Amino acid sequence: MNLLTLRKFAHYLKQTPPLKLRSIYRIADNLFKIDINGDLFFVDLSKGKSTIFITQETLLCSKVYQAPFDKSLQKYCFNSWIVDAKVDGNNRILQLVLETKNSYKTSQVVLQAEFTGKNTNLILLDSKNIVLDALRHLTKEQSFREVRITKPLLPLPQPTNTPMLKEEGELFATLENNFKILKAKDLQAKIAKSSAHLSQKIAQLQYHLESLEDRSTLENNAKKEAYLGQLILQNLYLYPDFKEREICLENEKILLPLQAHSLSHTAQIFFENSKKLAKKAKNIHLQTRNLEEKIFFYQKLLQMIQNVTNLNDLQILDSNLQKKSNIKEAKQKQKFFESFFIEGVKVSIGKNEKENIALLKVAKAEDIWLHIRGIPSSHCIIHCGKAKISDIILRKAAQILAGFTRDCDENYAVDYTKRKFVKITLGANVVYAKAQTIQLKKD
């Protein structure tokens, strides 16, 4: 973060009458969205690349942050007045003095944003410089400057050399350019990382698909196992005490399985293998279709990831690839349908008829159902229950749905309604009522 730009930003925030800090939310691990008098500012405290920026793009979070620090921000900062704003000398530290008033008392806290290279932080302090909470808590073993709740925060020593101040131009133009620079750096790196992960996943699925046994080969092997079992049964009376590991019957050399403890047991094993192979041959097309559907899904996801234009959309698409913490939940999701998270709201999409049916069955009455009008497509469910969802989440869910649709035109309409107004007729075919429509253009 440029020191001169930080000073300009502090000067802008120090106004009479004071500006109001309406809210401050974390929308990524180190990214905060601040509403000041209705204008949105973003503070990125990622280590080594911290900055403040503004953008006209709508940045959504893939999850809702509810850590103690996030609750502290809400408690101390929401609907507060910025009564003072300053930079700590030549340190890249922005200090906002916030004042809240209620019918009982007036209280002040300091919100301190530290853009200091690898030691970035966001700290809440009381009027006596005691730490109320912080994004990153540091012990004495970690740093000479301890950051712990109820402990005083030591001032950061000033640089020994006077820093060179670089003029970056008008404040808001600079903040807008900061986003473009951050976006260009991070986006390509993260797209490359996600694309490599997906490409590996697709390659593994393709390998499994190509490794599937041929149906006719399986059927022939099933017949062969059944023939050997029948051959042993027909000649069983001739070898009542057979103990060898190999036998020749009607010019057919038969090697007994290691687990077989008798000829009759050998016949039983051959019959069981025959049934398994016959069943596998019968269902091999299902395995093929399942793998092809997964490959199609991940190819489409790869295509969408490579075409994203902002980090927020990438984070939403990447939420499908995150490891599940709950094993039972992971198996369930893998079995039934694919899910994404938009601002903490789960959005699920079925890859085929079976998954579409399962998705319709698990959806609650008040959840939102989406489908592209006029063409066969996946079903989509926004798992929101009775909670009201924003138009942004609706449109983003519709765009993701279109991304996985095979025959979607450039201009398309997505119908949506509550799940309780959707009735299954046959398979995954439905009729629905009380629907509204989103008109969209495919990217």
Describe the structure.
With 443 residues, this protein is α+β, with helices and mostly antiparallel strands. The protein has 3 domains: 3-168, ibrinogen binding protein from staphylococcus aureus fold (Roll), CATH 2.30.310.10; 172-308; 323-441, no CATH class. 38% of the residues lie in helices and 25% in strands. It contains 9 helices and 19 strands. It has helices at 3-13, 68-77, 171-211, 215-234, 263-306, 311-318, 327-336, 353-362, 391-403; strands at residues 19-28, 31-36, 39-44, 51-53, 80-87, 93-101, 106-114, 121-125, 131-134, 246-249, 252-255, 338-342, 345-349, 368-372, 380-382, 411-418, 422-426, 429-432, 436-441. The chain has a 9-stranded antiparallel sheet with strand order 4-3-2-1-5-6-7-8-9. Helix 4 (215-234) runs antiparallel to helix 5. It is elongated. The relative contact order is 0.08. Residues 325-334 have low confidence and may be disordered.
Keywords:
19 strands, 3 domains, 38% helix, ibrinogen binding protein from staphylococcus aureus fold, 6-stranded antiparallel β-sheet, 443 residues, 9 helices, 9-stranded antiparallel β-sheet, alpha+beta
